[in-house]
Each structure stands twice: as C-alpha cells, then as structure tokens.
Fold:
Amino acid sequence: MGAATSDAGLAARCRGGDEAAWAELVERFSRYVYAICVQGFRLSPHDAEDAFQDVFAKAYVQLGTLRDDNALRPWLAQLTRRVCIDRIRSSARETPIEELEPDGVDDTLEILDEALAVREALARVGEPCGELLDRFFARDESYRTIGEQLGLPAGTIASRLSRCLEKLRREMEDSAPAVRPEDR
Amino acid sequence: MAAEDIERLGRLIAALPPAPAGWVAAAQELPRLRREFDALIARAEADEEFRSRLLGELESTLAEAGIEPTRRVVAEARDRLRSF
Structure:
C-alpha cells in the first residue's frame, strides 16, 4: 500500500490504454466487487467468480462511457449490482426484479463503502501498519502466522496492532471533512 | 482509543477480505487477453487453414498461441468466433 493515484486519474489512465493502471484499478476494487457479490448478493463461489469476471470485463469495455471519472467507485458498484442481479435472474426467470435483491443489500453496500474508505485511509497510513492490520483483520491470520511472515516476535503483535489502529483512527479523523459552523 | 472504535475499525477492515488471487490475476490480464484474441481473430480472418484449425480444435490452438484455455477464456473465444 503506497501513495495512490486518485480514482479519476486511474480511470483516465485506463482509458488511455495504460495496462499498469488497469492492473491497479482491478487491485484497488477487487475486494469491493468481491464483497458485493458474496456479502451483498450472497452468490455461490461459482456464480461469484463469474460475476466478478463479468464486472471487470464490462468495466474494461465500458469505461469510456463513465461520464465523471470521480464517480468510478459508485459506477463500479452499480455495474456489480446489475451483474449480480442478472446472475440471480438467470436462475430465477419468473421472479420480479425487485425480489431478486437479497434483503439488506443497501445496508451491506453502505457498510462496504465505509469499509473502502477505511481501506483508503489504511493505504495512507502506510507500512507496516497496512499489512499488519490487513493480515489480522481481513485475512484472519493468527499472531503466530503474522509474526512468522513479517519477522516479528508474536508477543509484540498485539501492541503493534493497537498502535496501528490508533494511527488509522487519527488518519480517518484528520481526513474527515471539517464541519463548518453554518453546516450545523 | 475507545473499545467500540477499535471494534468498529476492525470490523470494517474485515469487511473487505481479499478476492481469490486467481480471480484478480485473471481480471488484470484482460487487456493482454484481448490483444491476443484480436491477433488470433485477425490471423483466422487471413488464413483459412488456421481458421479451420481454430474452429475445430479451439482449446489446443489457444494453448499453442500461449493463451491458457480456461473455461471463461474458451467461452469468450467461442463468442468472438461466432462471426465465422
């Protein structure tokens, strides 16, 4: 995790045929798309894989239709939503569209948007915190595995995690938009 | 830091586990795959013998061209070859 190009910059570079930018775009949004498929729409692993590949194949072809590059994330979310609905629809042809979305999908998407913002903050916090927190929380690795992988004494992992979480919390506070008196 | 803040941040980090590495790699390979497909289609258009082989032995011809014939790749190739 390092200093990142903005979503808008990344979209523009992809449209210009920059394959490294495409790889970065996939890397940046792969967890988000995956989570929408699996957590939001509860697709089976097989359907989730097909949906995941469909989303990026469509994104690659349709990126030129994105009207506002700053809207890359919601555009991808919407694309993923449509692909997942199509996938569910293909196995439930007679079901009305509004019944195809699982209950609570909007709430899940809201949480995933917030989770993506935390991930962006995590990238700004940098290493070793980014990898440490990712391994422990997102990859569900034990203190021992993390210690072995990162060459750290397992006994120090808990305190490092705590310091990193504090750093992350400060980063999120610092980057939160200031509330002006007239907004209150 | 308040315990609930820690818990919430942890939950939000955990909400985005990594997608399977193979899925990510396949999506990242899309531009290369499209380029190779384009070259293959162009060759098939120009070379009748190659076209017959491609249509008849799709998977092995893809493999010979350096394209791994996974289920998705074969499906996309069939789709692209529909015009022949």
Remarks:
- The mean pLDDT of chain B is 87.
- Chain B has one domain: 20-83.
